Amino acid sequence: MWRHTLTLTRLQTPAFSYCFSDFPWPPDMSEVFPQHDQVVDYLAAYARCHGVRECVQFGCKVLAAEYAGVLDE
What we know:
The chain has one helix spanning 36-50. With 73 residues, it is mainly α. The longest helix is centred in the middle third of the chain and has 15 residues, at 36-50. Pfam families: FMO-like (PF00743).
């Protein structure tokens, strides 16, 4: 979605609220509401760092999804 958006699009929530807990925004990111290309770069960096792309099969139809984590009791 972020790759196919208008150039002037910005994140609508503050950057500190839109980040993975184990992957903060880069220290040089000073925008409160990052531009779309900054969001794309951030998400791509996360995917590279954590090997996400190797776990995704593109061009396939998703028939079902299930939560695989530990259930809260």
